[in-house]
Structure formats: C-alpha cells, structure tokens
Amino acid sequence: MITLRAIEPEDLDLLYQIENDRNLWQVGTTNVPYSRYTLHDYIAHSADDIYTDRQVRLIIENAHREPVGMADLVHFDPRHQRAETGIVIMKPHRRQGYAQEALCRLSDYALQILHLHQLYAIIAIDNEAALQLFHKAGYERQSIMRDWLACGHSYMDAVLMQRFL
C-alpha cells in the first residue's frame, strides 16, 4: 500500500509545507519557519547516511506514487541501538492506514537494516490519535514526562512510548 523512499529535490514543496505547519510545532522541536533555501540546502547536502546525519527522513508514497507524508528516525544512537520515531501524514490522506503501515515499514527497516534494539516516540498527552496509532504499532506507554512540550506560554505533558524490536 505504501513505499518509504529518500527525499528528492522534487519534495521541496512537501517538506516546506510540513516544516512550516505551525500546528505541528508543538509536537516537534521546530519553532521557527524554514525558508525554501534552507530546506533545499538540507536536501542537497544531507549525506543520506543515518550514521553521519544521525537521522533519516523518508517520504511516504501511496500505491499511486503520490507523496502522502513523511516518516523519520531522529536522535539515532548506534551505541545504544535506538532512535526516536516521527511521522506526519498530510490532512487529505489521514485515516487511510498510511501511518500504520509506515510505522510497520519503519520498524522493519530499524530492525533488519539498522539492527536497532528499540524505537521510541514522545507524544503530546492529549494527542489521542497518535497515542492509539503508536499503541497499535506495538509501542508501549512507559511514562509521562511533565511539562515536556512548550505551548505558547504554558507547557503540556507528553507520553514516552517504546517499542522493543
């Protein structure tokens, strides 16, 4: 149903849209808009090597080869054999099973290619859809991290979820 592939220069508009979506900033580490130049430079100069970049960002394509979102492994730690998982599905494509399959494929890649021991995700405590998605993908709720995510002038708790491979 889906394919995970490397980011191509043609994905600049998709990356620009995702990285500059203010609704996603509260669940990530971004809090400033990215210019097209900066994102173009990222695409052009990324080593496409998780051991060098300590991350890998992949485009999720549906069966029609249409980009529907992005999945990534960040904070890659080869010594402790773990990485943080992130996923974004564009609004028109949500609730069609793409995220579930992408997490499954990402787990297979992490286990079979990278030989990781675990994946983890940090999810806003009120993001029920993401909590259910990761639970269905085999992640277990481990702890609540108090005041973990800054939201304007206040803070929100987050849930640490882990999947052992």
Task: Kindly describe this structure.
The chain starts with a strand and ends with a strand. It has helices spanning 12-19, 22-25, 36-45, 50-53, 98-112, 128-136; strands at 2-6, 56-62, 67-77, 82-89, 118-124, 140-151, 154-164. The longest helix has 15 residues, at 98-112. A hairpin with a 4-residue loop joins strand 3 (67-77) and strand 4 (82-89). The protein is an alpha+beta fold. A seven-stranded mixed sheet has the order 1-2-3-4-5-7-6, with helices on both faces. It has six helices and seven strands, in the order βααααβββαβαββ. The model has no long low-confidence stretch (mean pLDDT 90). The radius of gyration is 15 Å and the shape is globular.
What's the arrangement of secondary structure elements?
Elements: E1 2-6, H1 12-19, H2 22-25, H3 36-45, H4 50-53, E2 56-62, E3 67-77, E4 82-89, H5 98-112, E5 118-124, H6 128-136, E6 140-151, E7 154-164
Parallel strand pairs: 4-5
Antiparallel strand pairs: 1-2, 2-3, 3-4, 5-7, 6-7
Helix pairs in contact: 1-3
